[in-house]
Specification:
The radius of gyration is 19 Å and the shape is globular. By secondary structure, it is of the alpha/beta class. The chain has one domain: Alkaline Phosphatase, subunit A (3-Layer(aba) Sandwich). It has twelve helices and ten strands.
């Protein structure tokens, strides 16, 4: 279905904006619609960026409205007041989680089958970062769910590719490798791989880390890894555990974490969808706390938090509400982003529409690399 984006984008985000105005007014004066430049004082070589994406969006009804605010206390009470908050981030591409994440990472709307075991066509921010700045492989990592994301770290562009890719850690896949030798049903809640097509199992390829590499690289015994898995309730918690290990071991300058629990909405279980939102909220707080307490990151890190896209609206013909993102309606395509940390102005709400493809050029402007094939533009409010 074709959409008139100039008309569709007049109103989305308004309720989000007004909700923030009402809810956060007590936190001090917010600047709404301000075009304020950030103030990056550190030299680029000292800066760090952490990107957190939600593979599975959450609607305003379950987050930013008065009825939904109880599900995101960390985001609303702790992180938003410290951030520049974009109320309208538009995704004009394919609404599949792997392909949408690839579009975020390349700055180009990638056009491939979301369930194909392929690399992005265009260079990723990880490749630009390493090639332009001469950074080693240990300076950029991706921690992601394992439904196809094993190829997210590098493109098939001949000028970039494997020699410049990020290290990719797929915690669920690593746990599955461990259990292939020591099977047990007690871990099964951590192994569900894809809520949209449960029979999908991508071919392994790319610069992803295997189980023994993980143990050697992060100085983590396999038994400790499996033992920690027994203490948690979701795959995203396992991902954040691994991300923190990477931060403490290597302190990479560019770290990308994809959370995926809330995509359980595809099963039609509303309560599990809400649990996923609440857990993602809590884990974002955990990641920010790690940034603030880790001396390699404190005071020099910019954190980006954004869903890859949204979910269907309740009133959309042919939609399934919270359960899916199939219609391409405005609720599915318009979401939000918050940016906080070093050099970022606090309590700024930006109401103009921006695009998913603007993320990659913005990361380049902060860290000093050139995503030359990206279609988006650096966001003036944060660079």
């Amino acid at each position: 279905m074709a959409y008139r984006w100039d008309e569709q984008l007049k109103n989305p985000g308004t309720s989000r904006r007004e909700f923030l105005r009402m809810t956060l007014g007590s936190c001090g004066a917010f600047k709404f619609g301000a075009i304020a430049s950030a103030t990056n004082l550190l030299p680029r070589a000292s800066r760090k960026v952490v990107v957190v994406t939600f593979g599975g969006g959450a609607r305003d009804e379950e987050t930013f409205t008065l009825e939904g605010q109880e599900n995101i206390p960390q985001l609303l009470q702790n992180l938003v007041p410290q951030s520049t908050f974009f109320t309208r981030v538009v995704n004009r591409g394919i609404l599949g989680h792997y392909v949408a994440t690839a579009s975020l990472a390349t700055g180009v709307y990638e056009r491939f089958d979301n369930f194909a075991a392929v690399c992005p066509r265009n260079p990723t921010v990880f490749e630009y970062f390493r090639k332009d700045l001469g950074r080693p492989a240990t300076d950029t990592w991706v921690v992601a769910p394992s439904n196809g994301f094993n190829r997210i770290g590098e493109s098939d562009n001949p000028a970039y590719g494997a020699n410049f890719g990020a290290g990719v850690v797929l915690p669920k896949q690593l746990l599955a490798q461990f259990l292939s030798k020591e099977p047990g049903t007690i871990y099964q809640h951590l192994l569900r791989d894809n809520y949209e097509t449960p029979f999908y199992s991508p071919a392994l390829a790319g610069n992803n880390i295997n189980l023994h590499q993980l143990a050697e690289t992060l100085q983590l015994s396999l038994n400790d890894f499996a033992g920690h898995a027994l203490q948690i309730t979701s795959p995203d918690e396992l991902s954040v555990f691994i991300a923190k290990k990477i931060m403490r071991q290597y302190a990479p300058s560019l770290l990308w974490i994809t959370l995926h629990d809330m995509d359980v909405a595809h099963t039609g279980a509303f309560s599990l969808y809400i649990d996923g939102i609440q857990r993602s909220d809590r884990l974002c707080g955990t990641i920010w706390q790690e940034i603030q307490s880790n001396p390699e990151y404190a005071g020099k890190t910019t954190l980006f938090i954004l869903p890859d896209f949204g979910r269907d609206g309740d009133g959309t013909v042919g939609g399934n509400g919270f359960q899916h993102h199939r219609t391409g309606d405005i609720a599915s395509r318009t979401t939000w982003m918050m940016v906080l940390g070093h050099g970022i102005r606090q309590k700024v709400v930006v109401d103009r529409p921006v695009e998913s493809t603007d993320l990659a050029p913005t990361l380049g402007a902060i860290l000093g690399f050139s995503p030359r094939l990206a279609q988006g533009f650096p966001l003036a409010e944060v660079v």
